[in-house]
Amino acid sequence: MSRVPRSLRDSGVIARRNLLNIKRNPDWLLEGTVQPIMFVLLFAFVFGGSLGGERYREFLIAGIFTQTVAFNSSFTVVGLANDLQRGVVERFRALPMSRVAVLLGRTVSDLAVSVLSVIIMSLCGLLVGWRLRGELSEVVLAYLVLLLFAFAMSWVGAFVGLISRSVEVAQSAGLLWLFPVTFISSAFVSAEAMPTPLRVFAQWNPITVNADVLRALFGNPVRVGMPPPTSWPAEHALVYSVGSSVAIVLVFLPLAVARYRKVASR
């Protein structure tokens, strides 16, 4: 069997193993399912009345989608750190399998978790007043862009998990950097209302642009109570969104593979 099909086969085996672990420990899904629902209800009904009411709820959902799949990278962080600490990676290394299979299997299985999260959030969003107003092709494209971003963030999580010294460190490291990156964006509020340094960061933040692409393709408001954004990323949102996701994969995939080889060779 040639190298690529073998790597894909081995990655599929690892992904299945990771999903079976989730099936045996369903409490691992709480963060990816219950937390998004809590954010939707909190922002839609506690803050939504003062931020734009029904229009804000439609604006909000795309931001929750983007935030959730970004936060789901913590599954990759903790999963890899846990496998390292328990010696599972050492056992995989002793098997005649592709070196990239452990990482690709992990990111693919966590992408499946993101798919489940997106389905649950979509249903929850429909219940609180969110509506899909775009064409079917645009809606499908929006979900594909979102899942590409989720896959890219999983590779960031893979690198963070491999450089973490323990599962406890991984649990903190997996989310610590995500909070400022997520909230200094247009996921929940318009970046145009932020002070200049934060506004510039938010405008170029992939989370902002991914959320804006989803809003545009879903037919939801891109901004509420503020003029439409005019920055370069906003004017080329789809290109920038896809390009930034691809760039993240191209940067962090080789970093994660190099780190995995270094860790596995100890």
From TrEMBL:
Membrane topology annotation: Multi-pass membrane protein
Does tRNA processing show up as a keyword for this record? no
What positions does the domain ABC transmembrane type-2 occupy? 27-263
| Source organism, top-level taxon | Bacteria
Q: Which GO terms describe its molecular function?
A: ABC-type transporter activity
The Gene Ontology biological process terms listed for this entry are: response to antibiotic
Cellular component per GO, a single term:
ATP-binding cassette (ABC) transporter complex
- The name under which this protein is listed is Transport permease protein
Question: What is the protein's species of origin?
Answer: Actinopolyspora mortivallis
